[in-house]
Amino acid sequence: MIVYIFAFLIGPVNVFVLHRLGRKILVFLTVPVASAICCMFIYGYYLVFESSTLRVKRQALTLLDERNNRAVTLANYSLFSSSSRPEGLRFDNQTEVYTYGSNYGRNADGGRFIVLDEDQHLATGWIKPKVERSMHLRALQTRRERVGLSWQDGYLQLLNGLGSDIESITLAVSDGRIFVGSNIGAGRQAVLTATGRFAGKKAGAMAETFNGPWFKRLRDFDKSPERYLMAGGYIAKIKTSPFLVQALDSSAEKTEESYVIGILKEEAQP
User: Fewer CB atoms inside 10 Å of the end CB: C or N, the chain?
Assistant: First the structure.
């Protein structure tokens, strides 16, 4: 649209005005000057509004075994940048990276380099200007994140040691009683509320989650977490996942949907 408006102004309008003024020879001056002004305007608009654009979208599901300090994380990670970013992305050597396009096929663009030393450094060519990059990630890591439980005056208290704010959590103690909590900051303690419901000893729906497209079940964790819950475990929706974090996330416009399915290491007795 801008190109058409510019062509109309610099063409018919410019010639008509100069003809009325009797100075048609000035067309050799007005055309290059107007072109230079238009180019400067477009470049200035890009610098102000688009040159620093960085958008990140992440879906993550982590199975956290607190007993053995192990975490399995599945994630969909997409980013869009208006400029190239030579710092690239970094993942540890226990993370599998699989790139895909909008048609769920492998990306065919070339010019990408991976530096393998202490980790996997997806360096030059991975973040290109105005080219969306989408990846499936799978990681097996040794992690120390956990939740701490204690009973005080008959109430179950939870200490958030997951490294991120908990938006909501549904937890089942060893006898199956279900407790819920919400809005628990990282490192903060809160009292959980008993629901009067009970969880089973086995979570059959959990196996189905990891055998299929897991990201299609994330919304079910909000609607009916009891289906995926078993005694001695919990399901927490967290604000931002501490697993597979990238340095550039802090400067990005980020959309995230992250959940942790935890297996408790130990449980305080009432």
Answer: N
CB 6 within 8 A of CB 37: no
In-domain check, residue 203: yes
Residue 68 lies in a domain: no
Per-residue pLDDT tens over the stretch 116-131: 778 888 888 888 888 8
Q: Which amino acid is at 198?
A: F
Question: What's the DSSP call for residue 119?
Answer: S
Domain interval for residue 201: 146-263
Q: Examine the fold and report which residue of 15, 33, 50 is the final residue of a domain before the chain moves on.
A: 50
Q: Please state the pTM of the whole predicted model.
A: 0.77
73 belongs to a structural domain: no
92 lies in some domain: no
Q: Is 54 within 8 Å of 252 (Cβ atoms)?
A: yes
User: Can you state the angle between helices 27-45 and 14-21, rounded to 10 degrees?
Assistant: 140
Tell me how far CA of residue 117 lies from CA of 78, 91, 92, 96, 140, in angstroms: 24, 11, 10, 15, 18
